[in-house]
Structure formats: structure tokens, C-alpha cells
Amino acid sequence: MSKPNLARRVAEAAEIALTDHKYVTFIDVVTGLRWLRSRHVDLWRQGRAATLAELAAVDEDRLVTTAALLRDWARAKGLRPVPTPYVSGSRDRSPLRFTTRPEQEAFQVHWLSPELSEARAKRLVERQSKAPDLVVVAPLETWACASCADTGPFLIMEDADAYCLTCADLDHLVFLPAGNAALSRRAKQESGLAAVVVRYNRRRKVYQRHGLLVEEAALIRAEERCLADEDARLRRRERDTVRRAEQDVEYQATMAARIARLFPGCPPERAQEIAEHAGLRGSGRVGRTAAARALDENAITLAVVASVRHLDTDYDRLLMAGVPRTEARERIRDAIDRKLAEWR
């Protein structure tokens, strides 16, 4: 890839992140370029990889060039640089490394929009500078502690080795399963020591929050607080449900209008159907990505392609007949291109 072409792609990924949350990081750009996926970043943040570069789909030189291109783009946009430390969620909270090279500063900058209020910028810096939560893993396979050779339901990583909770001095904590946001939040507030428990989802290929480890006394106090204001929280949840539904309707209408502009031949009811399907909250579909929320042309086109693939081609029938997914996609490629050309 030529440097001008890379600069253009870096700028596109950075613009999407800036539109979405008013600041840009190196992580935003490399995930936007799809050189890294969220599961890779999770592994790195947990301290299970020596550097981020070893998980990336490109070499270190490309990452260094990308950081420099992001810096040049951000300065031209008038963004404010804020150096931010990155530390792991391992027991020793060691500094995270992006590459094997000694210079790490270029990767650690948060570029803040001038539109970001001082109060919000201050909160962002404080949140990013704060040491991350301790991360404990609920393993799916048999394992043994690197110190005592024992095992257990949870492990914590340190220097690429797995340790049991006893050796990590965390065995006095109790497990609180995920599912009750208020109880989890308050138990964590009350607990002097806490750890987030994650479990790997093989289907989605990401680590997902499984619960918390907190002090038992803290959990009891949190339960008492939740019982005291249960009615008020129920009413607030009902209001939030209505508000989120209204936001979804507005977002899906905006997406449908964007589809109509990119594909004027697409019937309006089909554009609305695509937007409702792709933009469904909690679905994990392309319409919920930062790129789609920024109405990026590529992301919107991917949502349209997904609809055409399933509704206007033999793709589903081919899968049911046992045709491998990559081969099935290759067979229907021309049909998708014809439909997109027709709608354009």
C-alpha cells in the first residue's frame, strides 16, 4: 500500500472515531483499519501479549508509520494531544507496550476535539489515566497455576503465566454474576479490592464480562442499598427504555435516508427494512458499529450487501446444501454486484 493511500485510510478511520466520541486514539485507527479486532485488544489489555504488534495483521513498521500519519492528520485538524498511560489489567498493572521498540509515546496520545468541553475533557483524561480493573478469567479449558500447580474456577494472568486466586491473594473475594447492573456497580464501589471476571465466547471470538469478584461485606452493603431504592430504579429503567426506543427510531430513519442517497433505486420500504435490521440495538450487526453510526459509506454499503446476500441471492440455500461459506460468497458475488448496480 502506498503511503498516500495509507494516509487516506488512516484519515477515514480517524474521522469516524472523532465523529463517534469526539476524540481519536491509535487503537481506534488500527481497529478501524481492521488490522486488529476487539478480541486482540482485550488479550493485550489483560497482559496476555507482550506487545500489541504481535497480534496485528501488519508489521511494526506499518504501525509506526500509522501513528505518524495519525499525528499529522490530528495536528492539521487542530486536535489537542493528551499523553495517556496504558497499563495492563494484570495483577502487577505493568505498562502496556505497543511494539518492541523503546519509543512508545507516539501510540499513547489521545487526540481531543476542540468541541469537547473542558469538563468532559478532564473526565476523559482522568478515566483514561486511571489504572484499569483487575481482570480475572473464567477458563474454558483445564489449566494449572504457574506457582503452586493447583487449579480453580478462575485465573489471573501475569507475565503470560496463569495464577490461581490463592497465589494472587484474591481468594478472599466472592463471585457476583453479571446481570444486575445496579448491584454490580454498588458492590464494586463498596469493595476495597475488586476484579472483573471475563469468559471467552468462542462463537463471537471475544472475551465477555462474566461477573465481578468483590469482598463479601461489600456485596452485603450493596444488596441493602439496592433494596432501599428498588422502586425508584424500576421507574428510571422504564423511562430509559422509552428514551432508547425513540433514539433507535431516529437513528434507523437517518440510516434509511443515507441508504436512499447512496442507492436511489432501492425501494424506500427495503431501505427502511435494512436500517431496522442492521441498526437493531444489541444485535452486534454492522449498523451498530461506530462507522455506521457516523454514516460511513463503506459501513452502510456493507449493511445493504448483507441484505442483498440473504434476500436476493441463493446464498442461504447454498449454505444449507453444505457449500462452504467462502465458496458460497464467491458464487453469488456477481449477483450482488448486479443488484447494487441496479439500485445505484
SSE order: HEHHHEEHEEEEHEEHHHHHHH
Oligomeric state of this protein = single chain
Strand proportion: 5-15%
Helix count equals 13
Q: Low-confidence parts lasting 5 or more residues at pLDDT below 50? A: none
User: What is the rounded distance between the termini?
Assistant: 28 Å
Radius of gyration: 23 Å
Question: Would you report the number of β strands?
Answer: 9
Major sheet: 4 strands, mixed
Given the C-alpha coordinates, what overall shape results? globular
Instruction: Please tell me the overall pLDDT.
Output: 87
Strands of the largest sheet, in order across it? 4-8-9-7
Structural class estimated from helices and strands: alpha+beta
**How much helix, percentage-wise, in residues?**
40-55%
Provide tags for this entry.
344 residues, alpha+beta, four-stranded mixed β-sheet, three-stranded antiparallel β-sheet, globular
What does this structure look like?
The chain has helices at 3-21, 26-32, 38-45, 60-77, 118-129, 181-190, 216-228, 230-262, 268-278, 290-293, 297-311, 315-320, 325-343, and strands spanning 23-24, 80-83, 109-112, 134-137, 156-158, 161-163, 174-177, 195-201, 206-214. Strands 4-8-9-7 form a four-stranded mixed beta sheet. Helices cover 51% and strands 12% of the residues. A hairpin with a 4-residue loop joins strand 8 (195-201) and strand 9 (206-214). The mean pLDDT is 87. It is globular and about 65 Å long.
